[in-house]
Amino acid sequence: MSHWYQQSPDEVARKLSSDLENGLSTEQVESLQAKHGPNELIEAAGRGPWKIVWEQISGPMVILLIIAAAVSVLLHEYQDAIVILLIVVLNAVLGFIQDYRAEQAMAALKQMTVPHVRVRRSGRVQEISALELVPGDLVLLEAGNVVPADGRLIEAQSLRAQEAALTGESEPVEKSDSAISEDDLAIGDRRNLGFMGTQITYGRGSLMITETGMNTELGNIADMLQTVEAEETPLQRRLGELGKGLAIAAIGIVAVVVVLGLLDQQDWKTMLLTGMAMAVAAVPEGLPAVATVALALGARKMLRRHALIRKLPAVETLGSVTVICSDKTGTLTENRMTVTAIEAAGDRITIDNRDVNLTGRVETNPEISLILGVATLCNDASLHTEKSEADDDEPQSVGDPTETALVFAATQAGLDKNALEERLPRQGEIPFESDRKRMATVHAVDASDTDSEETSAFVKELRSAMSGDSQHVIFVKGAVDSLLDVSSRVWNNGEIETLDESWRSRIDGANADLASNGMRVLGMAFRPLKSDESADSPSADWESDLIFVGLTAIVDPARPEVRDAVHRCKTAGIRPVMITGDHPLTARHIAKELGISDNDRVVTGSEMAKMPENELDAVVQDVSVFARVAPEHKLRIVQSLQKQGEVVAMTGDGVNDAPALKRAEIGVAMGITGTDVSKEASEMVLTDDNFATIVGAVEEGRIVYDNIRKFIMYTMTSNSGEIWVMLIPAILAVIGWGVVGDIPLPLLPLQILWINLVTDGLPGLALAVEPAERETMNRPPYPPNENFFGRGMASHILWVGLLMGAVSLGTGIVYWLADGPPDPSDGAANRHWRTIVFTVLTFSQMGHVLAVRSHKESLFQQGLFSNKLMLAAVSLTFALQLGVIYVPFLQNVFRTTALNLQDLLICLAISTLVFWAVEVQKWWIRKNSPVPQ
Ligand code: ATP
């Protein structure tokens, strides 16, 4: 059997029952989809439900609890054993729900990153999800696409692909559409095949799909891909390490309590269980899990704000971003382009209305028609008038907005692109590249197509410019400076003149004049091809000795919301930087309008190219506008900024932007205009291509990080409070401090477990959805690897924990003394004062969680209702605690007793002390650093 690469396109299409012109029909697609299934690589499933359950029940904490339950059974404390197991189950269920939701959120995000592809089906070009492809589909490829499945190239125009995913070779290889007769070719030599996962770096073409999903070459090696572990974020890793360190410290403290208790002649069985309960209480086992939930929730909120996170670590890094480097077109501006001026040989016509008919003006000025003709033919966009649902005839555009604007202007002047293309069919092309800043197309000019009445001004003008035997013409459009580099002549009122200095300065002047008003200026040039020049195989000589015709100015308004976003960046200590391929004057105008630049300095790519590294380092510190920049300059800017300790977010849309996107801490790709390659290289994709979205994502990143810190602060302070309650009496007993030295254990093991696993957990989770604080975007970014315990965290955990412990224990001791010595025959001895300790501690923690909702603002400024989940969690915990005190069955289990109203009110009042203390501290912080308004 011959291979696909040995067969001609016709044979391939026949074998697949497809059609080279029209692709598959809808019915064929349906049956093929049923037969082949979705075009996807079956990855080793993420963490399925069972894996999550296993993780929940195999953690060290659960094992410890199970041992505690077993010990209880041995000691015939069956009720305790059952309660411990119930707590294990409850805790596992809560953990499972959290983790499962986080996993689902991640799976949904992953699903959204499936690329879209353009296929021709039933003769029409449609955009579909790559998952829906079937063998026989005709896929249209262009530079920037990732090949969605394996197939045979039917057309290849200067097509190059980077196939490193399969061959390891990072240099792009030339692709072709002609059959190869050799046998047994290695993958890298099958030049007329396209392979899933490889990247088109140049040119365009079409591919008839032959294999999809796991049948592709990439599918064959997919096993290798499955071993890639889900990436842990730096924060998760650090929290994991922190947890381990704290666990060791906690076990040390527990050992102290147990040894001291035994020295104090306490019952060894109780001490054993107490030790275990304390170990469970002291180890902050939930840290990494909560970080995951907070990150996943953050990613979901970012998506709602149009930022799709591709890699979870980005959520946390975003909050630390110090510089945002952004493209101009489409990100800072609307990418809604309209041609507003056309200039030929010093004559300028301005177009102030999209509906105006230019035909009249073109008749009297044939050069304008030549400019528009070149603009519309040397152009990959198309306009078609389709009756839309709204029943208006508004033309629908397909393609790059700059190009559609030109096609539209040509249409206004009566030049129909489709009709012209029939008359002057395209024979060859050099695609647009940001590096060259221009594109070229070669068209056949039929000599027999003599003047007739309906011949447009454009064709007449063109014919008058064609020399003798020339059969082809090359049209070039691009940035004016880049066109002047390759032009030597100029078209002036039907005459060809030498492009001398005076012409150059006239053209440069017109260019600068239009650009300084914020317009994007494109020049047009042409020349007849000589008869010995090839018209279909591109050559560098094509773009030489050109005849410059004139220029068009296009307006692209700045996005209104970006001004505000730029301002927000600045108050948040983030520097916005514009990096654009456009003209320096255009760039400066827009940068000023948006408030990006405080000075007028603009550095161009060619200036950068001449700068040694140290000079560039100095430049990037205070220049915020870079123009006429090629993708490789972007990489240099990122590197230079990083060298100076900046955390960089960088936007990009083209294939060549990939290295800069990869290098930046946060690579940001454009969801609408971006290429698949740029998306693959990025951490985040903007679904609306909007700069303001990046700033929104930074804000969400900061919220996530702040909330994780608040959670750590809350749980560790709670843990420290519980430890103090147990540790202080043990120490007092050993030092034999008067009557207090005789106090029994203030909390029983089950009470400790209850506080730690039930009452602590819910409000802690509610911290993960805490909304933004006023300060969030009014402070400079924190460094990405800052010490968790910095900025007052360590002292807070110690002093608030100590206060919490002292308040609960102190109240308990007062009651213990007041209750008098217990009657040893009373089974309920010590219950009363222990219930007081238990209750004050739980309520204090509730007060604390409300106080740590903000680092600085008081709860009253924030509003009690601004985190409803928190309110619900605190109320529920409060109700549960009352249940434990007042429901007889639970009293029995937790060895509590009903408090009378007076005792309950005393507990409530005393437990607010922690809340007030933290509020006073926040007041102090506010007083010393007022909240910026
Ligand atoms: P940004 O980098 O801010 O998105 P940009 O879109 O202008 O800016 P490029 O796409 O690299 O950057 O374009 C660089 C220059 O090339 C433009 O300023 C314009 O002069 C020219 N240009 C852009 N698109 C085309 C095109 N389709 N054909 C010919 N020239 C073009």
Quick recap:
The protein has 933 residues and is an alpha+beta fold. It is built from 35 helices and 26 strands.
List the total number of helices: 35
Shape estimate? elongated
Q: Largest sheet at a glance?
A: 9 strands, mixed
Low-confidence stretches: 224-230
Radius of gyration: 36 Å
Mean pLDDT: 85
Task: Give the beta-strand count.
Answer: 26
Small-molecule components bound: adenosine-5'-triphosphate
Structural class: alpha+beta
How far is it from the N-terminal to the C-terminal residue, by CA? 75 Å
**Percentage of residues in DSSP E strands:** 15-25%
Share of residues in helices:
40-55%
Notes on the protein architecture:
By secondary structure, this protein is an alpha+beta fold. Helix content is about 50%, strand content about 15%. It is built from 35 helices and 26 strands. The strands form four sheets. Strands 10, 11, 14, 15, 16, 17, 18, 19 and 20 form a nine-stranded mixed β-sheet that branches. The model is unreliable at about 225-230 (pLDDT under 50). Adenosine-5'-triphosphate (ATP) binds near residues 478, 479 and 580. Adenosine-5'-triphosphate binds near residues 327, 328, 434 and 582.
Descriptive labels:
single chain; alpha+beta; 8-stranded mixed beta sheet; 16% strand; binds adenosine-5'-triphosphate
Draw up the topology in text.
Blueprint: H1 9-15, H2 26-36, H3 49-57, H4 60-74, H5 78-112, E1 116-121, E2 124-129, E3 138-142, E4 150-162, H6 164-167, E5 173-174, E6 193-194, E7 199-211, H7 217-220, H8 222-226, H9 234-263, H10 268-282, H11 287-304, E8 307-309, H12 313-318, E9 323-326, E10 338-344, E11 347-350, H13 359-364, H14 366-377, E12 382-384, E13 396-398, H15 401-412, H16 417-423, E14 426-433, E15 438-444, H17 457-465, E16 472-479, H18 480-486, E17 487-492, E18 495-498, H19 501-515, E19 520-528, E20 546-555, H20 560-571, E21 575-579, H21 584-594, E22 603-604, H22 605-610, H23 613-622, E23 625-627, H24 631-643, E24 648-652, H25 658-663, E25 666-670, H26 676-680, E26 684-686, H27 691-735, H28 749-759, H29 761-766, H30 793-819, H31 831-851, H32 859-862, H33 868-886, H34 888-894, H35 901-928
The chain binds adenosine-5'-triphosphate (ATP).
